[in-house]
UniProtKB/TrEMBL annotation:
Domain of life: Bacteria
Catalysed transformations (reactions): tRNA(Gln) + L-glutamine + ATP = L-glutaminyl-tRNA(Gln) + AMP + diphosphate
Chain positions recorded as ATP binding sites: E48, P49, N50, H54, I55, G56, H57, A58, K59, S60, T248, R283, L284
Domain called tRNA synthetases class I (E and Q) anti-codon binding: residue spans: 481-553
Gene source species: Undibacterium luofuense
Protein name, UniProt field: Glutamine--tRNA ligase
InterPro entries reported in the protein's UniProt record: aa-tRNA-synth_I_CS, Gln-tRNA-synth, Gln/Glu-tRNA_Ligase, Gln_tRNA_ligase_bac, Glu/Gln-tRNA-synth, Glu/Gln-tRNA-synth_Ib_cat-dom, Glu/Gln-tRNA-synth_Ib_codon-bd, Glu_tRNA_lig_a-bdl
Domain Glutamyl/glutaminyl-tRNA synthetase class Ib catalytic: from-to ranges: 41-344
Entries under HAMAP family matching the protein: Gln_tRNA_synth
Ranges spanned by the short sequence motif 'KMSKS' region, renumbered to the chain: 290-294
């Protein structure tokens, strides 16, 4: 096992402890969630199907599914589809696909744990009726303006609605008529009756049901009233018997209402102890990246990128098309850990995880990205001599790649200098270099066009210097260049991606991320690649020696006409 693999195995065998694991350990020790026929740890990932998942969601997915895996519990994938206007089946489909691609599964021996909040609409409704009957909720008929004004603010307590003490049976009648479609949106709303003077704004009689004459992508036109997120979410958790409901820090102030809802519903006989408990962790902020569905949508809709899966997008589908592996994203999420402290993760962390994952796996290949002709003047005309190179330098068992060398080759333009700078060991007149896996050559001259551009470099080769033959040991050179044979190289489109923003924190502190776009985030070039690349299938990851990791684009690449996306360079260049 290589060192890389050893580290990785160690990392996955003993996940780093964190505050959530400590809580779960204590709950397990105390027997808190011992229930007949149920695991003691049930988590959930609850996306709203109103956009594509991004790398921030990946943190939440890896956390929730990872805890379930490590504690032999289960994690539910649940669509929080209570807001019909913004939601769509397209998003349901991509979310399912992305979570599966990341390597997680909700379909287990004890059931298929894929859930939709919309399947619980009848239960939500019944609980709301119960709350009204028990005096814990009422129908408010104030205008939206009055309601906002009467809510108060952080320095001013709210004012009770004039409808707050209307009889329960009057509220119940209105609620039933709301459901029957007798009113327009905004005419009435159902509110929990808690405390308009609470220092926590979320406890000032929060809304629990509102009228929305909207078509739902799953329930159609059955409903014209929909539950509010803060009311529905705790009930979804309780219905599914979630144990640890993990969310991001901005929901900390919502926790008292989360507990209130579950407690009232439990008193009403809808649930039994032990009930779910909410815990908050710091969301992922990644430098050079925005993770907000709204902002990502803006990039798509204004054609800044080619779509949700543009390889520069921090969406899961974008990372996938860029060439990231699910293993790299999981490794990244493990390395960043979870805490309650907000902060920024440097982009080099996710690239580091990617390199650590790909280095031992990715086959090697040669690509010349900025081609310059190299002519071996003393090479036999029309002769192609067979050469080979290992598929992977540390895995000889993976075999060799075959290609040829001939009189005319392509080398990188930057591997030749007419007048070398100090410390330059590549080609310049009079210098010798090795053509990797081929011969040692000595540079003899070059051609220039009328504009002074170098159009070809000339050299002579040493026939007894071929790599892998005894004679090669007699040649000591400092430069070792990659190349492809003009006679058998394949031309290919290569897309060189760079960060999408010029600013490390493009949407922090009120900055307008749309003004901080990197105009050079994509460069498309025509390159030459070694002949074996002609038949490579879409979605194949490899390392072009000296250049970095690349993937054949899953949409635009076809065998015979490959298109390569650069996933990342070989070394970190982000800090520079
Ligand atoms: P956005 O803020 O991009 O609109 P969201 O929070 O509205 O995302 P949801 O579909 O509600 O998207 O999120 C599903 C889950 O993913 C939630 O539990 C949420 O806490 C979590 N999540 C969203 N963004 C991040 C992030 N940046 N880091 C960690 N978890 C996140
Ligand atoms: Mg949200």
């Amino acid at each position: 096992m290589s060192n890389d693999n050893k580290n990785k195995a160690a990392e996955s065998a003993a996940p780093a402890s964190n505050f959530l694991r400590n809580i779960i350990d204590a709950d397990l020790a105390g027997g808190k969630y011992q229930r007949e026929g149920l695991p003691s740890v049930i988590t959930r990932f609850p996306p709203e199907p109103n956009g594509y998942l991004h790398i921030g969601h990946a943190k939440s997915i890896c956390l929730n599914f990872g805890l379930a895996r490590d504690y032999e519990g289960r994690c539910h994938l649940r669509f929080d589809d209570t807001n019909p206007e913004k939601e769509d089946q397209e998003y349901v489909d991509t979310i399912i696909d992305s979570v599966q691609w990341l390597g997680f599964d909700w379909n287990r021996a004890d059931g298929n744990h894929l859930y939709y909040a919309s399947d619980y609409f009848d239960t939500f409704y019944a609980i709301a009726e119960y709350l009204i009957q028990a005096g814990h909720a009422y129908v408010d008929s104030q205008s939206a303006e009055d309601m906002a004004a009467n809510r108060g603010d952080f320095s001013r307590p709210g004012v009770n609605s004039p409808y707050r003490d209307r009889p329960a049976n009057e509220s119940l009648d209105l609620f039933r008529r709301m459901k029957a479609g007798e009113f327009q949106g905004g005419e009435h709303i159902v509110r929990a009756k808690i405390d308009m003077a609470s220092p926590n704004m979320n406890m000032r009689d929060p809304a629990i049901y509102r009228i929305r004459h909207a078509h739902h992508h799953r329930t159609g036109d059955k409903w014209c009233i929909y539950p509010m997120y803060d009311f529905a979410h705790p009930l979804e958790d309780a219905i599914e018997k979630i144990t640890h409901s993990i969310c991001t820090l901005e929901f900390q102030d919502h926790r008292p209402f989360y507990d209130w809802v579950i407690q009232r519903a439990t008193e009403g006989g809808f649930f039994q102890q032990p009930v779910p408990q909410q815990y908050e962790f710091a969301r992922l902020n990644l430098t050079y990246v925005v993770t907000s569905k709204r902002k990502l949508r803006q990039l798509v809709e204004q054609n800044i990128v080619s779509g949700w899966d543009d390889p520069r997008m921090p969406t899961i589908v974008g990372f996938r098309r860029r060439g990231y592996t699910p293993e790299a994203i999981q490794l990244f999420c493990e390395r960043i850990g979870v805490s309650k402290a907000d902060g920024w993760i440097d982009y080099s962390t996710i690239e580091g995880a990617l390199r650590d994952d790909l280095d031992p796996k990715a086959p090697r290949a040669t690509a010349v990205l900025r081609p310059l002709k190299l002519i071996i003047d003393n090479f036999p005309e029309n002769e192609q001599i067979a050469c080979s190179a290992p598929v992977h330098p540390h895995h000889p068992e993976r075999g060799v790649r075959e290609f040829t060398i001939g009189k005319e080759l392509w080398i990188e333009a930057e591997d030749f200098m007419e007048e070398p700078v100090k410390g330059y060991f590549r080609l310049f007149p009079g210098n010798k270099v090795r053509l990797r896996y081929g011969y040692v050559v000595e540079c003899t001259g070059f051609d220039k066009d009328a504009n002074g551009n170098i159009t070809a470099v000339h050299c002579e080769y040493f026939p007894d210097s071929k790599s892998g033959t005894p004679g090669s040991a007699n040649y000591k050179v400092k430069g070792n260049l990659h190349w492809v044979n003009a006679a058998d190289a394949v031309q290919a489109e290569v897309r060189l991606y760079d960060r999408l923003f010029t600013d490390a924190t493009p949407d922090a502190g009120g900055k307008d991320f749309m003004t901080l776009l990197n105009p050079n985030s994509l460069e498309v070039i025509q390159a030459y690649v070694e002949p074996g690349m002609a038949k490579v299938e879409p979605d194949t990851r490899l390392q072009f020696e000296r250049h970095g990791y690349f993937v054949t684009d899953r949409k635009d690449s076809v065998a015979g006409k490959p298109v390569f996306n650069r996933i990342t360079t070989l070394k970190d260049s982000f800090g520079k």
